[in-house]
């Protein structure tokens, strides 16, 4: 029997509610599959923890997480805690210290009724964004000079190393080759004359090793337009940390909203545990009301199963999400239904058993 040890960080707001439903799915899989078992340990880190202790996570939090097979994160963010603290001192800290340099965000239309487009079908919007996840514009490098004075100057430095840029681009080429799909690079070389010119050059250099992969390269403004006007042109997309963050929110907007937006933070070498999360945020305005959409959190369980090389379960979870989206009686409120968070989870495991 395979046992996977999972660290739970429910975080803030609706994070606790949606993570509960993801754990419900894992426990149900355990009942259905004699070859799998899961163990869990919950860590109370997040903004409320910060307000009590002055820290987003324990000082030795990284060491505590190292022994797990995966981290399952709910959401971070809460009024009274600056966003740059809640993000950098928990989520980004885990990403960087565990070298989770690959961020996988599927942009997949699971039900055509969910897209704001009148003429798009499921087959028209189905691609994967591979986002560099460890450096770039989120590296935290910079300086704040003459604070509060008339000559105040702020420098925010994007860091693009040869190692970091080449490995994410190579990962994307490998994925495109494996899936026999096209690969599109998104940058901004016409304006960012160092970082993005470097990115473009590395993309071209690495591409010489993959002559079988058909490639495209777009400026990020053009790519943003095409995400909306012609999403069918994309199959695999690779881009920088900041651009990937922004573009995937556009992707969520054209496929049903943030309640269906999921993300996997991967260390491909499996030297450290990878982290899985819905990317919708903590939504403190609806926390505790039992109306949060848990489907993004459940979709991230599908990504976790793929990471554990249990692809059959990953596919079954995704098929069950597609099935639940066809039954308006059990849809959460943000998708036009009236089901509570727990009711969506309960119905989901019923569908999973049928699958």
TrEMBL record:
Isopropylmalate dehydrogenase-like domain segment(s): 5-348
Catalytic activity: (R)-malate + NAD(+) = pyruvate + CO2 + NADH
MF-aspect GO terms: D-malate dehydrogenase (decarboxylating) (NAD+) activity; tartrate decarboxylase activity; tartrate dehydrogenase activity
Domain of life per record: Bacteria
Top-level EC class as recorded in UniProt: oxidoreductase
Enzyme Commission designation: 1.1.1.83
The UniProt record lists the keyword tRNA processing: no
Assigned keywords, A-Z: Lyase, Manganese, Metal-binding, NAD, Oxidoreductase
Cofactor: Mn(2+); Mg(2+)
Similarity annotation: Belongs to the isocitrate and isopropylmalate dehydrogenases family.
Protein name, UniProt field: D-malate dehydrogenase (decarboxylating)
Species of origin: Salinicoccus halitifaciens
